[in-house]
Amino acid sequence: MTTITNTPTKRASIQQKQNAVRSRCLQNPRTFFTDAIPTVLIPPTIFTTLLLGLWTWKCFWIVVMQDKLLYIAWLPPFARSEQIADYEGQCGPVRWEGKQIRSLDGTKLTVCEGRMKSAVGSHVHGHSDATASLRDDLRNSDPTKPKKRVVICYFQGNGGSTPLRLPLLSDMLRTVTSATEDPSVEYIVTALSYRGYWTSSGRATQSGIELDAQAFLAWASRTYAGPDTDLRLVLWGHSLGSAIASTALATDLARRDGRESSVGAPISGLVMEAPTSSTKDMLISLYPQKWLPYRYLWPFLWNNWDSSRAMERMAKWRDECPGMEAEVEEDGDDEKTMAPGLGTVKPRRIHRSLPPILMLSAEKDEVIPPHAVDQLEADARRMGLVLERKDVAGAMHTEALVKVEGKRAVVNFLLSCT
């Protein structure tokens, strides 16, 4: 009887113990993570894992969205809806007009053209219309002398729209026009809106912008050339635009054969305002901390603007053997090839020269680090390029032309190289 009565009690006790063990297992489940790592290291391990995950996530999107991050056509807000008329009152005697061209792949591009208005300029200085007429007569006084026309091809930085820069360009055009001593020289400023910028169509990419730059130079050569016009082009780039301008110059030179009859107007100078050496240096300047992984993403960039590489291409074009051309002499009976009826023909080496470069750097540039400009200058001098550098005291990234010494340096360069 005792055994029979105690059996239910034992079973109930065993059941209670099993339930308690099961409850403890559910409350404190044991995993490989908690078994392998000491309890004291679990919080820092979780924090480190989250930090690495966040870094990896941001690195991924920096690489994927690099076009949007580099070509900031959408800042400031409503930049693409701006009009030339919005800044017309700040442009003084310069008249701006929008023109439509096409890139080499057919993409529609917008170019702003700025010219001095003689009548407006005369009223500004208190002169009558007769003064403007006299100036026009001086320009045409010598019909045998070709009129010189200097076209400044401007390549903007990576942010904003073209109309935003028109007041600054107008001030420069007004200053250089008044500084020239030859009334027969005409200065014109043309500013390119890359694809994806302002009213230009398409999407901004490096390969596309390179095509835009070449189409821009070809259009300028065709539009402003004339049988009685001595046309000169000067390329002017700001920030990323300096890399675009130098790349365009190197590509344009590669298409030439070193002769006077080469296609396109001669390029007389290159202005690099607040220049950047490469997108790699830009990435490092944005993330100077060595412990951040973002500065090491440059191998994954497909936008590889590099001014140093462009200057190397220029130097290579200058130094490579351009071949020989025939030079005819009327007299001479030495051992040279004789051309019937032409006299003596001897080979002559064609000398190639590069346009001078003005490097304008801002002393307090908050975007481009000083060492990038120093390295760019050192590369140019090592290659034997004709380079002039001007450091504008107290200027920030967009203020080099606002300061008097920066404006004076650009004006003197334009007058000397053209």
From TrEMBL:
Any GO molecular function: palmitoyl-(protein) hydrolase activity
Protein origin, superkingdom: Eukaryota
Basic and acidic residues bias: start-end ranges: 134-143
Positions of the UniProt region annotated as Disordered: 123-143, 324-343
Domain AB hydrolase-1: 187-381
Keywords attached to this entry: Hydrolase
Keyword Cytoplasm part of the UniProt annotation: no
InterPro entries: AB_hydrolase_1, AB_hydrolase_fold
Transmembrane segments: none
Presence of the UniProt keyword Ribonucleoprotein in the record: no
Species: Aspergillus steynii IBT 23096
Any single Pfam family the record assigns to this protein: Abhydrolase_6
Full protein name: Alpha/beta-hydrolase
One cellular component (GO) term of this entry: membrane
PANTHER family xref list: ALPHA/BETA HYDROLASE DOMAIN-CONTAINING PROTEIN, SUPERFAMILY HYDROLASE, PUTATIVE (AFU_ORTHOLOGUE AFUA_3G01760)-RELATED
Stretches of the chain forming a coiled coil according to its record: none
